[in-house]
Amino acid sequence: MNINRITDRVTYCGVNDRTKSLFENLWELPYGVSYNSYFVQGTNATAIIDASDSGHAAGFIDHIAELLPDSAPDYLIINHIEPDHSGAIPMLKSKYPNIKIVGNAKTMDMLKGFYGIEDNLMTVADGDTIDLGDCHLRFIFTPMVHWPETMMTYFEEERILFSGDAFGCFGALNGAVVDKQMDTEIYFSEAYRYYACIVAKYGQFVGKAFDKIAPLPMDYICSTHGPVWHEQKPKIIEQYIKMSNWEAEKGVVIAYGSMYGNTTVIAERLASKLADAGIKSIRLHDVSYTPQSRILADIMRFKGLILISPTYNAEIFPPVESLLTAILERGIKNRAIGVAGSYTWGSQAIRKIASRLEGKPVTLLQPTPQLKQALHMSTNDDIELLAANMKSELEN
């Protein structure tokens, strides 16, 4: 059982999912995912903060029963009602029918819609508190991080922030729960992928939430996915702030599509020229092969982006178009973007990519290397110049 004490009054009681292949039926989970729940023991009452996915409800409830073998929990606090954190609630309520469910007005509306639950509810407002005896839990509304009902819960005496999905990441927990007891390298990498796929569209609301919680003293951040952040709390906060502002490292992502290999030549040549120019962080992705989540994570991390597409049925090559749509939906900004492509008899892809990026808060670089059928010397010259312009932009 993955029950781990965090402090004298807070215990981790979440579950791991190592068999789900796609999160939201979209995003790959090579390292699995955790559904984090926390148990708070006060002198007068107890509270569970967030639940779990329905597929792991039995294990989650076993954890609660082990913590409270002779009694029932008093409260279930719902920071976020997305089903990966609330699917276990009907089974939990069946075992503990008198448990009081705590959330905001939007939470309660969704609780009724998802599960038909309308009794033993406690609706709270922003800034309200619950007194568990020697424990005071304060509710901080953080709407649209990343659903409209999202909030956080702050344990005042222990200086613990239960942050919902904020500061979360993909990756199941391998025994340890608190960051100081584990190798966290993979979780910082998976945080880029998690944020880019799930949260990036709502960056402005993430920023508002961070401003709201910034004055709070915090010893621990307990997210609903990934490690409990303690020693490395400043690092994950810094990474999340940078992601919410689209701040980036010096590096270039080259995302290309190719049917017969000719467009691949442009990508490889550009990578070589960028390396010659001293750019060390270069990521090449064939969009027909690399999972989109990995490409989005790298785009979130690095300042430079080059999109390369052949013309396909007088349009952008479909996998490149899908990636372009994804980054525009997420509000991409503060990026230097180059465009290149190929065609056989009618050039369309470059023009259509550029037109969709015009007016966005990005820098479009010139030239736009393009080959007709195969690579020629004039295209090679444009590739070299684009690489040089990208280097100049990254150094600004």
Structure description:
This protein is an alpha/beta fold and 396 residues long. The chain is built from twelve helices and 24 strands. A seven-stranded mixed beta sheet has the order 1-2-7-8-9-10-11. Strands 18, 19, 20, 21, 22, 23 and 24 form a seven-stranded mixed beta sheet that branches. Helix 1 (57-67) links the parallel strand 8 and strand 9 (75-77). Helix 5 packs parallel to helix 7 (233-244) and helix 5 packs across helix 9.
Write the layout of secondary structure elements.
Blueprint: E1 4-5, E2 10-12, E3 15-17, E4 22-23, E5 27-28, E6 33-35, E7 38-41, E8 46-49, H1 57-67, E9 75-77, H2 83-86, H3 89-95, E10 100-103, H4 105-115, E11 121-123, E12 129-131, E13 136-141, E14 151-155, E15 160-164, H5 185-199, H6 203-213, E16 220-223, E17 228-229, H7 233-244, E18 249-256, H8 262-276, E19 282-286, H9 292-301, E20 302-312, E21 315-316, H10 318-329, E22 336-343, H11 349-357, E23 363-364, E24 370-372, H12 377-395
Parallel strand pairs: 8-9, 9-10, 10-11, 15-16, 18-19, 18-20, 20-22, 22-23, 22-24
Antiparallel strand pairs: 1-2, 2-7, 3-6, 4-5, 7-8, 12-13, 13-14, 14-15, 16-17, 20-21
Helix pairs in contact: 5-7, 5-9, 8-12
